[in-house]
Amino acid sequence: MCRKISSIEPSNSSASIILLLFALSQAPTTGWGTARVLTPLILSVIGLIAFFVWETRLHEDHALIPPKFWFIPNFLVLVVVSLCTQIYLTGPVLIFSIYWPSAYGWSPLSVGLHGCVLCLFSIQSLFING
Known about the structure:
The protein is mainly α. 75% of the residues lie in helices and 0% in strands. The protein has 2 domains: 1-70; 72-130. The two termini are 28 Å apart.
């Protein structure tokens, strides 16, 4: 059975996340009080609130995130833990991308290839450990 999902929910959530990332990336260089930061930040917060309000109003068959997910015990803990594992997997790649060229004198290509191998083994360990 195919679920019918409109293009509004994914477009709204994607645009809101992109605006949030743009605002957070521009804030250190242009300042938090500038319109270049505040406008996308406010629009992203409004967009994310609209997304969640819209999702609560839809029927379960049409919602991007089914409403019963929010009532699963410890669902928020699951979301936080999944974000922590993402940081755990990408953190070493970022640290090693600075360490390897300075300590060993490796080229960017060599660092990238070693980072890919590190990522592949990290992903493999996710499947093995469950």
